[in-house]
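**User:**
Everyone, produce one record:

**Assistant:**
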Amino acid sequence: MAKQKATSKAVAKTAVKKKWTGLGSAAKSSARKTIKSKGRVAAAKPKTTAKAAKAATKARPKQRIAISHHREEDFKADGLRTYAQYRDLGIAAATHGLAQAHVIRLIGPCNPQEVSKLHYHDVEFQMVYVLKGWVKTYMEGQGETLMKQGSAWTQPPRIRHLIMDYSDDVELLEVILPAEFKTVELTA
């Protein structure tokens, strides 16, 4: 088999040599120049905008390790929703505002008049994971969805959504970029 491969390589080399030796030297160099030229054009740097240049020169501070162990006393009623308790996981401080993560407990029973308000968040990224219980959501373009323990979803930036219902024991893990963002409540 090795002998057959060596023969195949030799035949291929000869075929390539014959092809190029039939061309004049001017044609050879012209073809090579064209190929090199195309390579240079493709490798040219894209034009940078002033905004991109500013972002590239502004480096983020070094991130720290964030460790958070479960403690009941860390759940606070100091977040976005009055019907929820939040356990900050220390991500915002460790990333200097790049992201935030927290565990959310929605306090039952669900009161749709308080909870079911259409809104959106002015964020770059938002992901929610159901740690326990269940939550029924509405997202624009998706409709109603029942999320159970183990379910996860992302909410694209500025997507209109609301919580419709939830179990009395629901806990959610939420990750958002950036840590500071605006929430806009919409009137129906």
Summary: The chain has five helices and ten strands.
